[in-house]
Design brief:
Blueprint: H1 2-33, H2 40-59, H3 90-96, H4 99-104, H5 110-123, H6 128-152, H7 156-163, H8 166-198, H9 205-221, H10 227-252, H11 256-264, H12 273-283, H13 286-295, H14 306-342, H15 353-364, H16 371-402, H17 408-430, H18 434-451, H19 453-463, H20 466-469, H21 476-504, H22 508-532, H23 534-540
Helix pairs in contact: 5-12, 5-14, 6-11, 6-12, 6-13, 6-14, 6-19, 7-8, 7-16, 8-9, 8-16, 8-17, 8-18, 9-16, 9-17, 10-14, 10-16, 12-21, 13-16, 13-19, 15-16, 16-17, 18-21, 19-21, 19-22
């Protein structure tokens, strides 16, 4: 009886399981009826389309994976969470060398050279100390920009898009584009002046602008053969500038004693205050802050591997420091040459890019290598290289703020056109006399001065945030130093703006517009500082700090 009972219970249990299975199959069938099924061919087509889209998106990125310089050996680089930093390697330093060269070009653009020659002609050797310390301040800012790009894998414009509200990032983008166009106009016209000098006046300014716009695309085309090829071109440009201005330096034989005194003894007077402000303003440029955070991403770095990130920061710090040391020597040569030749002369107050070569030739004549052509070659190298980096920076700024998914060549065409069109207009309108070009240069400096706080404050805001930087957030001492540098630079630019508009304001309407613009400028600075939380952060953070090279916050 017990066996029959067990068999009946097993039968009922089996029937119940069959009923539940049939019910599940029925529910599954009803659900599948609402989902359109695709054939294997359709699914394969969809996968291929998605893969193709991914490849196209990678191809059109600023630095596609295949374009990045491979440095780290996957087997030797450690796990994703590794914090070990390998010993120093000259080979790795060579592979990391490049982004600092492109960044340093902004310290040598034609606007800088004009500021240098005017400082030397008017102030003599007295402002060499300021050039040195301004370069050091610029190095601090550029190291922070590189740190942001390496630690996050994204550049400043991209992070600003995520950090700020719609209206704030729109204002930041517009101001960044205006400053970039202003810098680009100076760079392109500087190249055009060089073409005019080297052609004995056969190539007018407007034709030089067209040539510069065209050959810029040619040099950018070299990137298709590898980013190292383009970096090699910049090394040639910087080498050309170094040789040209070193030749002028030894040809004019400046006073070594006065040179050392100018470097070591700070001197400043009311007569040289304007040139002092221009030296600081020429060294720290807004678009270069955006540029460097993107250039460092040309190397393949796994941001999950803290050891790799720290090693990259170490090598980038070395190559950036060496690159800016080279720019310091070049700028130093230009100032001392014009201090030696023109300081205390009647020509000092009227000298500029256009007539500098002619004045040099009048003083030193022709010779085997006429100094006029040496100056023209150096100026051409400065203009060409800075124009290319300006186009580069424009691509990063536009893509970062607007998140444009367009092809790289189209981005370059758009950003180049945005600068070339106003440059052509300026070349035609202001090419009537040397004084008109000087007036144009002053207004372009004003546009860049307006933008500098809106590049520095977002940078310092982001590198101080742990949710952005993780363990690579800067320490409190570095943060205080960085904010001190930023405040000093903003005050210098603010003085430049005040001095300029006090001379230029004429009429009630123009004065009212300037006051309105100044109020908006200050208000936006206050908003960005409040958004950053810098004031309470600087007051409350502990003194345990980390420098540029350290890894752990503990």
């Amino acid at each position: 009886m017990s066996s029959q009972s067990q068999q009946q219970q097993q039968g009922k249990h089996k029937n119940r399981e069959e009923e539940e299975e049939e019910e599940e199959n029925h529910l599954l069938q009803s659900e599948c009826e609402t989902i359109p099924l695709s054939s294997p061919d359709v699914l394969l087509s969809n996968w291929e389309h998605a893969d193709k889209e991914k490849q196209e998106e990678e191809k059109d990125a600023v630095y596609a994976a295949k374009d990045k310089v491979q440095i780290f050996d996957l087997e030797a680089s450690g796990s994703a969470g590794s914090t070990a930093v390998p010993p120093f390697s000259w080979r790795k330093l060579w592979l990391f060398t490049g982004p600092g060269l492109l960044m340093s070009v902004a310290f040598l653009d034609p606007g800088n050279l004009e500021g240098d020659l005017q400082a030397g002609a008017i102030a003599g050797y007295s402002l060499l100390w300021l050039l040195m310390w301004s370069t050091i301040m610029g190095l601090v800012i550029q190291l922070l920009s590189a740190r942001l790009g390496v630690a996050t894998g994204r550049h400043l414009a991209e992070l600003c898009r995520e950090e700020y509200s719609n209206w704030a990032r729109l204002v930041l983008w517009i101001l960044a584009e205006m400053a970039l166009i202003a810098a680009d106009i100076q760079e392109v016209i500087g190249s055009a002046i060089a073409f005019k000098i080297l052609s004995h006046g056969l190539i007018p300014i407007w034709a030089g602008v067209v040539i510069t716009a065209t050959d810029c695309f040619f040099f950018l085309f070299l990137e298709n053969y590898g980013v190292r090829k383009l970096e090699g071109v910049f090394a040639v440009f910087i080498g050309t500038m170094g040789l040209s201005f070193a030749w002028m330096f030894f040809d004019t034989k400046p006073s070594e004693e006065e040179l050392m005194m100018g470097l070591l003894i700070p001197r400043l007077s009311s007569k040289t205050l304007r040139q002092a402000v221009e030296i600081v303003g020429c060294v720290i440029t807004p678009h270069n802050v955006f540029l460097h955070s993107a250039l460092v991403q040309s190397r393949d770095i796994d941001i999950r591997n803290k050891g790799q990130v720290q090693e990259a920061l170490n090598y980038y710090s070395i190559e950036s420091s060496v690159a800016l040391l080279v720019t310091l020597l070049i700028n130093l040569s230009v100032i001392t040459v014009f201090a030696r030749v023109f300081y205390g002369t009647e020509q000092a107050n009227g000298i500029g890019l256009v007539n500098a070569g002619q004045y040099l030739e009048e003083r030193y004549g022709g010779g085997l290598f006429p100094i006029l052509y040496i100056w023209g070659i150096g100026l051409l190298a400065a203009g060409q290289s800075s124009t290319i980096t300006g186009t580069y920076a424009g691509q990063f700024i536009t893509e970062g703020f607007l998140k444009l998914n367009i092809k790289k060549w189209l981005r370059a065409l758009i950003t180049r056109s945005c600068a070339i069109v106003p440059t052509m207009i300026c070349a035609i309108v202001f090419n009537t006399s040397e004084s008109s070009l000087d007036t144009l240069n002053e207004w372009l400096n004003v546009v860049q001065a307006i933008q500098i706080p809106f590049a520095l404050i977002p940078l310092l805001t982001l590198v101080s945030k742990e949710e952005v930087m993780g363990t690579f957030r800067i320490g409190p001492i570095v943060e205080k130093v960085a904010w001190s540098v930023a405040v000093l630079v903003i005050l210098v630019y603010g003085y430049m703006l005040l001095d300029f508009f006090l001379d230029e304001v004429d009429g009630v309407l123009f004065g009212f517009l300037v006051c309105l613009g100044a109020a908006a400028w200050i208000s936006f600075i206050v908003y960005l500082v409040q958004h950053s939380g810098a004031i309470p952060s600087l007051m409350m953070r502990s003194p345990n700090s980390r420098g540029f090279f350290s890894l752990s916050r503990n």
